[in-house]
Amino acid sequence: MTPDPTVPDPTPPAPPTPPAKTPPAFSGLGNGAVVSGPVALTATVASGTAQVDFVLDGTTVATVTAAPFAATWDSFSVANGSHVFTLRALDGSGTALASDPVQVNVSNHIKTVFIILLENHDWSSIKGAASAPYINKTLLTQGAHAERYMNVPGLHPSLPNYLWLESGGTQGVTDDAEPPNHRLTTTQHLVSLLAKAGVSWKSYQEDIPGTDCPLTAVNYYAPKHNPMVYFTDVTGNVDRNSANCISHVRPYTELTADLETNNVAAYNFITPNICNDMHDCSIGTGDTWLSKEVPKILASKAYKEGGALFVTFDESAGQDVPIGFIALSPLAKPGYSSSVTYTHSSTLRSVQEIFGVTPLLGDAANATDLSDLFKSFP
Fold it and tell me: Which domains does the chain show, CATH number per domain?
């Protein structure tokens, strides 16, 4: 029978199925990748993609709305360990496609240490003080701090405390006399161990000229606040012309350029002069100095990619009470307050752990390290 052309076909052919869209995928980031520092993220997507979300552990960390669909993720924002990335690609109509998950293993570690030493104040006179707005409103917010960083029992005056930070003990020193009066011949101290391990170090001292080894007071610089110059292996047996000393103990004014050119050492010991460190001048003077100088460190590549800055005091005003200690780092816990008990031995032990140098020096062997202040340590 000839079909009646006026009667519609009851079973019209189905419309063609549109081709499946290709789901997004990471380019250059493989499953199981070990990552650290800034991580480049790039998505390969289908034509017509209008937006890509980079999603880490279920939370969007970057959204890109134009090709190339790329972003940079700061892996210091999470703790070390396993994390999962996915991509979500949206076309112009809002239809979303997800990528397969990609597991990454974050492995960040402290690579550069800065220590700033201030002077002779109990933590109770600093915390909440109107004269220290930068410490209280900025540093305590950005960094982690200790509530029980204790004065080493009975340890005064300044020099024995500085020597403790360098060697885990006083080396028998009980006063603030200059290096010619205390020729410490031991090589069991921090910068000696660092040098033997090939780890670079510098002591930045405010107000020294940099033309000689600063064995005596000059301007507002005091040797008692610079422990390295008491050890004869650093000074060539107390030689003002020691090339080794001069190359490692530098004027503080050089730090800015070293930060800007990423030429800082791995270990950087910083002493303001005896006014800016709150010794001879006010808490407000030291706080203002910090507000001008700390941002230079925090803006540096060395800090952003694995740095740690410790701001602390050499000793209390006289009693065995807490002194200030603040740790700033991409790996520190922002705004965190620790109730763990610490002393200078804890700082020394932590620096040794960061750089992997042994043996643990003096009382550092008995100390708790500073790991409670960090998301990941060392």
Answer: 25-106 (2.60.40.10), 112-373 (3.40.720.10)
